[in-house]
Amino acid sequence: MIELSLATAVIAGVVLAAIICGAGWALLAGVASQRTAKMIDVDRNTAHCLLESSPALAAIIRADGRVEMPGRMVDWFGLSRMPRFLADLSEPGGGLGEEDAALIAREINATQKSGRAFTRTVRAQGSDRVLMLRGQRAADQVASPGSAVLWVFDATEAQAEITRLGDELHRMARAYDALTALIEAAPMPMWHRDADLKLTLVNTAYVSAVEASDAEAVITRQIELVERTDGGGPLAKAEAARRGGLPVASRVPVTIAGARRMLQVTDVPLGPSGVAGFAVDIEDLEAARAALRRYLDAQRDMLDRLSAGVAQFSADRALVYANQPFRRIFSMKPEWLTDRPAFDRVLERMREAGRLPEVRDFPHWKDDRREWFTVPGGGIEESWLLADGTHLRVVAQPLPDGGLLLIFEDRTEQAQLSSARDTLLRVRTATFDNLFEALGVFAADGRLQMWNRRFRDAWGFEEELLARHPRVDTLVAEIAPRLANPARARLISDLVRSATGERKQRGGRIAFADGRHFEFAAVPLPDGNALFTMLDISDSRRIERALRDRNEALETADGLKTAFMSAMSYELRTPLTSIGGFAEMLEGGYAGKLTKQAEDYVAAILQSVERLGQMIDDVLDLTQGDAGSLQLDRAQIDLAKLMSECGDAHGEEARARRIDLVIEVDASVGKIDGDAKRIGQAVAHLLRHAIATTPPEGRVLLHADGTAEQARIIVSDDGPGMDEAEAARLFDRFARADEARGEDRALGLGLPLARQFVEAHGGRIGIESEPGMGTLLTILLPRA
C-alpha cells in the first residue's frame, strides 16, 4: 500500500511536473503570440498609414466586376459616392469620361484574363487633376482568383512638370537651332573642341578662312586656323582655358586670303563638353587704334601750343593729361603731374599756389566742383578772379566716359581791354553828346544809327522820330521846309550816299530859314557807315563879316601909316641933316671958339642927331619890309670876318659900360650867300640889346659856328633875363623894355629889325631866357 502510494505519488509528481511545464510553455507561447499580434497590429497600422499617405492608391477589381477602393480614391476620381462596379467609375458630372471608362474597362478585363499590365493617363471630369492608372493581376493571397489591382497615381504636378519640360525642350531645341544658325552665319570664325581638344564643329567663316572645301574636310584633317606661336599654338591656349576654367584671349597674326591679318582669338571652357572658340578680326581696330594714338599725340601737341590751359581727368577722377599752359598758369611741376593726382588734390595744389579765387568754405566749394563730373546737360562755365588780379574763364565739360575736361583761359587782358572799352564808350558817348557840333551816324542802308543832342536840337526833330532810326530820305523830307532854300535838302542825302557808297568825303554850307548858318560834311567811317557833322557858324559868319570889314579898314589904315612913316622919314631926314651940319660947323669953330660947356652941348647935339638918324633908318627899313620893297645885295659873305668886325665895332661901348665882350668864331661858320650889311645890322642889334641889358661887370658872348646846311650865330649875356611873357613881346615892334632895367635901353626897333633881316635871308631867330639866368639869342642862316 505504501509502495502503491509512493508510485502514485511519483506519477502524480511527474504529471504535475508535466502539467507545470506545459503551463509554462503555454504561458510562454501566449506571451510570444501576444507579442507577435502586437507587431502585426503595428505593421498593419504602419501599412495603413503608409497607404493613407502614399502618392498611389490601390483598388481591387474582382472577377465579377465589383470594385473595392479607399475613400481618397473616390475624391480623386471626383465621384459623389463609392462605386460598387467598374461601370460606376463614370457618372454625370464626375468620374471618368465614357471613352476613358470604356478604355480602362477593356484594359482591366485583359489584365484579369491574360495578366498583362497596363498604364494609362486619364483626367477626371470637371477637374484639373491628372491621374495615372497602372493595372496588374492581383496575387491570390490578396484577392480571389481573377482579380486585378488598379494603382492610381495623382500625376497632376508631374504632368505639369512634364508639360513644362516638354515646352522647355522645344524651346531649347529652337534655341539650339537658332544658335547653330547664328554660329553658321557669323562673319567670324567659330569652332568647338571635344574633351580631347579635337575640332568637332566649325562654321562657314572658319572654312573660308582656312580655304577648305567644307566643314567635314576641316574636321577630318584637323586644320587649325592659327599657326604655331610662342605660346605653344592654339591647342595650348585651349588647354590653358580648360585648365583655368576661364576664357583665354590672345592676339595672333594669321594669313587669310593671302593677306596678313591680326585676330583676337578667345577660347571659352565648356566643362566636360570641351572648349569653344571664336576669332575676331581686329586688323582694322588695330589700325584705328594706331590712328587714334597718332591723333591723340597730334592733339596733345596742339594743346601744348594753345594759350589756354587744358586738363583732362579720367572716370576715376585722376589727372591723365595737362598741357604746358596749364602747368604754367597753376605753377605745377611735370614730375608731380606724372603721378596722376586726384581731382581734389589738384584743387588743393592750386589753392596752395594761390591760383584759386578766395572762398569762405573751401571744402564745400570743392564738393560743388566735384559734381562737374556728373552734371547733366552739358558743360559749365565760370569766371575766377585770382588774388593777383588774374581773370580766368573756366569751362568744365563732362566726357562720355565719365571723365572731365577743364579749360582755363586767361582773360586778364580781355577784361582790361573790355573795361577800357567800356570806359572809352562811356567817354565817347558823353563826348559825343556834349560836342558843340551836331553829329549823326548813318548806316550803309541810309538809316540813322546814332545822333547827339545838338543834332536833334539843330533840326528840331522829335525824339520819337529819331528813335525809329529813319532813312536819310525821310529826314530830308522833314528838314526841307526849315531851309532858306528847300531844294538844298537833297544835297544832304546825296552827301550821305556818297560817303557810304563811294567812300568820298564831301561838305558844304546850308542856310536855315530862321537866319542860322551851318557848315556840314559827310565823312566815310572805317566800318562802312558815314558820319554827318554840322557846325553852327552863324556867329562866326557875323564875326567874319565884321572882321572882314575891320580888316579892310585896318589894311587901309596900315597903308596910310606906311606911306606916312615913309614920307615922314624922308621929311625928317632933311632938317636932321641941317641940324647935324650946323652942329659940325660949330664944333669946327666956324662960329668962333666955343666954351667948354658949349662944346659939350654941341657934342650932345651931334650924338642925338646920330641916334635920331639911326632911328629914322630903322623906321625906313621897317616900312620897306612891310611894303615888300626891302632890297638885299646878295654876295658871298665871310661870316668869320663879319663877326669880328661886329665885335670890334661894339667893343668901345662894352668897355664904357664895364662889360666883358667875348668873341668866339669857329672856322666851321664858313660863308653864306646874303647881304653882308643886313646880316651885320642884325648882329649889331643883338649885341646892342645884350650890352644894354647886361649890368656892369657882366659878360656878353658872340659865338659863331656852322654845319654843312646852315650857319649859327649866338649872342648871350648873363643879365637879369626875362620871363616867357616878356620874351614873347621881345620882337614886337616899338615894344619898350621894362623901365626897371634902366633908361639906356633901346627903343625896341632893333630886335624886330634883326628878325626881319634874318627872315629875309630865309633864316630864323630864336630866344631862350629865364629870370636871373640871362638871355640867349640865336640866328640860324641857311647856306643856300
TrEMBL record:
Pfam families: HATPase_c, HisKA, PAS_7. Its EC number is 2.7.13.3. It catalyses: ATP + protein L-histidine = ADP + protein N-phospho-L-histidine. The keyword Transcription does not apply. SUPFAM superfamilies: ATPase domain of HSP90 chaperone/DNA topoisomerase II/histidine kinase, Homodimeric domain of signal transducing histidine kinase, PYP-like sensor domain (PAS domain). Residues 567-784 form the Histidine kinase domain. The chain crosses the membrane at residues 6-29. Keywords: Kinase, Membrane, Phosphoprotein, Transferase, Transmembrane, Transmembrane helix, Two-component regulatory system. One of its GO terms (molecular function) is phosphorelay sensor kinase activity. It is an enzyme of class 2 (transferase). PANTHER family: HISTIDINE KINASE 1 (PTHR43711:SF1), TWO-COMPONENT HISTIDINE KINASE (PTHR43711). This is histidine kinase. It comes from Sphingomonas gilva.
